[in-house]
Amino acid sequence: MFPRDFAWGAGTAAYQIEGGWQADGKGPSIWDTFCHEKGRVFGEQNGDEACNSYELWEKDLECIQQLGLTHYRLSLSWARLLPDGTTRHVNQKGVQYYNKVLDGLLACNVSPMVTLYHFDLPQALQDQGGWKSAGTATLFDSYAKFCFQTFGDRVKLWITINEPYVCAKLGHEDGIHAPGLKEPGVAAYLVGHNMLRAHAMAWHSYDCFYRTEQKGAVSLAINSDWLEPLHAGRTEDIAATERQLAFTLGWFAWPVFVTGDYPETMRSAIDARSKKLGCSGSSRLPSFSKDEPAILGTADFFALNYYTSRNIEAGGGYGETLCMKSDRDAGEVLDPSWPICGVSWLAVVPRGLRKLLMYIKDAFNNPAVYITENGFSQVGQLQIEDVQRSEFYKDTILEVAKAIQEDGVNVRGYFAWSLLDNFEWADGFSARFGLFHVDFTDARRSRTIYQSGREYAKIISKYKCAQSK
């Protein structure tokens, strides 16, 4: 049995669904710029129109109602609201759009979970240094306060920043996400640090100025795989697994939930490596200033994005971390009955989610947890009757139920990724995560529910009925 007030949701992000990239005064974001450069995205695709949710919001709302969702997670486009990234100029058309979305949800008894930043930094701020610049954190705080003031009367669940790890590493080290920088060993740590500073500033702003009246909750969405040693009894693999957890999940969860600083494993490794590299008197991993708002305690719940599990084997090297075996190894070793999904990084391991939830309970003092993203992709030939994905949702939600009932994890909600097939970043439209298929060859962007969407709706209906008894 799930708690009576359990949040049954699905999620989207502004750049991935809205389109209207130049509509009604919106400014460009780093993803607009990135996608308009050759060779960045599968098939030279972009989110200029995407699902056209900017014009077809009512169609999205129909999909939400068809599923019977109690909650819907969306993100706000910073550049649609504040075209140059600052509050000097507010785009009222953008404000009107999000007012329409929020009012539409509430009219249908659907509660919004709103993400302030889901990868799409205004290009104007990138031109000034982006997340590598310490000042971006202050500008984010101003943006956050604007959103709290403008929309907070209707929002009870806020996410400040989505997956800072992905933004830092894929955007500033690997160069495969916007802004497309490749500065290994330096930029990612700086970007991650400034995102944590930005999150903490925004949380404290909400806590000081808005919480009493608005009575909402604020967190940041942290992505993590579940990790296990490839050889359970091998000391080196166990140590490598713990190290990898510190450099991924721990990087952002440890400062917020445990100590106010980075994991000691991470700090000592980077400090030592920095000294060996001859860095001028300082570590490549910045330190938090006592003159700024404290990081520790700046989350009212744990927001978790989970997709896959991996086996870790010691050996080789990646920056300060130790290398991982391939995704296919994860699928075969952890759960041989499940295949690799269409995207190369996703091996389906539903029971890995339960194990990760247990780890979070034990490591982070049993926080309230919202699973803010979880999904299974489809590539290649379209399958509306996607039996495998239907089974995925049944099996995964069963594991969440076990985590609640048998393990005592305080899970408050589950958000499927995604409501719609959408622009999946570097994969373009080639990876389909939606509960609804979107026909991108159709000017009307017609939406058709998948079998997995119907299955998820059945699950929601079943548990909602049980909760009401």
TrEMBL record:
The keyword Hydrolase applies. Keywords: Glycosidase, Hydrolase. GO terms for cellular component: cytosol; membrane. The active site is at E373. InterPro entries: GH, GH_1_N_CS, Glyco_hydro_1, Glyco_hydro_1_AS. One of its GO terms (biological process) is glycosylceramide catabolic process. It comes from the Eukaryota. Transmembrane segments: none annotated. One of its GO terms (molecular function) is beta-galactosidase activity. Belongs to the glycosyl hydrolase 1 family. This is Cytosolic beta-glucosidase. It comes from Zoarces viviparus (Viviparous eelpout).
